[in-house]
Each structure stands twice: as C-alpha cells, then as structure tokens.
Backbone:
C-alpha cells in the first residue's frame, strides 16, 4: 500500500501536526510506503499566475513541484489530507494545490456531460480537519463545505472515491482529553486494514 499525506498547516506546534505524527505512526506500522507532501515546507506557491493560466487549459505546468506532486498522486493507493478549516474553507495553500495540481489530462478529461475523473488509482482518501466551530455546526449550519466543495466538488470530480472525513471541532477551546480521544479515533481509522 502506498500512502501520500498532504499536510497544509504551517505551524509545527499545532494540533494538526500532532494529528500528522499520529497518522504517520499508524501508516508506517502497516508496512506500507508513506510519503508526505508538506506544502508549506516545500514553499509551494498557491497563487495562479498568468504563466500558470496560459498553460492551464492545455493541462501543462512549468512548476517542478506540481509535476512532483502529480507523480506522487499517480503512485498513491491511499491519500490523506490534514488541514485546518479556516473561514469554513480550506487554507489558501491547499486551494492552490487543487487548482494547480489537478490538471486536465492528469486528474480529469472533459466529457460530454461534465468531467471524467482520471485519479481512480487512489483507492481510499481520508480528510482530517480541525476547526474551532463544532463539527455539527460545520455540517448543518455552514452547509458542510468539506463534503460539498472538497469531496463532491473537487475529489469526486477527478475520480477520487471512498472518501472519509474526520473533524475535531473546538480544537483551541476544547479539552486536552477530547484532543487525545480524537487522536485515538484517528489511530483506529487507519488500523482498520
């Protein structure tokens, strides 16, 4: 099994990084190959510039990091995203990752009706998020932006199926006991297989 973790939090002292360490330990214990894409450490530029847009409709890029990330996704069986929910959406660096990496010819082809996803090699995907808002608030009152935009509007459109979403709400104002319980839940999620 080949795992790829996409990490989209800049601060190593965050709970997101505690989650990352927990996930990495769980995945390494399976004996599979685990690779991390640390968008901030890599210095990934999420901004779509004029040169990026001139190549976008052709499914091309001049960014070596984009090509590297595409190669890693092409080889992945299980994809894991770890990020905070900021203003009910993904961090800008992750939005830029979707915009610049999931290109035509690599992630999708245009079909008669909509897109035909090409990333069917990815058998499972897990999205792990943190938020200050409670999970129920995100799901019901904020219109569930993770499910609606990230899972259905992005990942499913490029062929990624079997997506699970785990969120830890009230991350800053919650108790350390609740954070520890969430880490155990994450560990259990990855020990299923």
Residues:
């Amino acid at each position: 099994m080949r795992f790829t973790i996409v990490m989209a939090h800049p601060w190593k002292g965050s709970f997101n990084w505690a989650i990352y360490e927990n996930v990495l330990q769980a995945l390494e214990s399976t004996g599979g190959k685990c690779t991390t894409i640390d968008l901030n450490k890599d210095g990934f530029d999420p901004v779509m510039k004029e040169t990026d847009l001139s190549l976008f409709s052709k499914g091309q890029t001049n960014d070596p990091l984009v090509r590297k990330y595409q190669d890693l996704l092409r080889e992945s069986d299980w994809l894991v995203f770890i990020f905070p929910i900021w203003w009910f959406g993904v961090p800008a660096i992750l939005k830029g990752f979707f915009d610049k990496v999931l290109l035509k010819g690599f992630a999708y082809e245009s079909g008669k009706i909509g897109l035909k996803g090409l990333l069917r090699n990815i058998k499972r995907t897990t999205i792990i998020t943190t938020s200050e808002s409670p999970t129920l608030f995100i799901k019901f009152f904020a219109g569930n932006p993770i499910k609606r935009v990230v899972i259905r509007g992005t990942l499913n459109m490029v062929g990624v199926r079997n997506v699970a979403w785990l969120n830890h709400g009230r991350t800053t104002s919650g108790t350390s006991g609740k954070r520890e319980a969430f880490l155990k839940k994450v560990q259990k999620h990855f020990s299923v297989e």
Notes: The beta strands are 2-7, 33-38, 78-84, 108-110, 115-117, 124-130, 163-168.
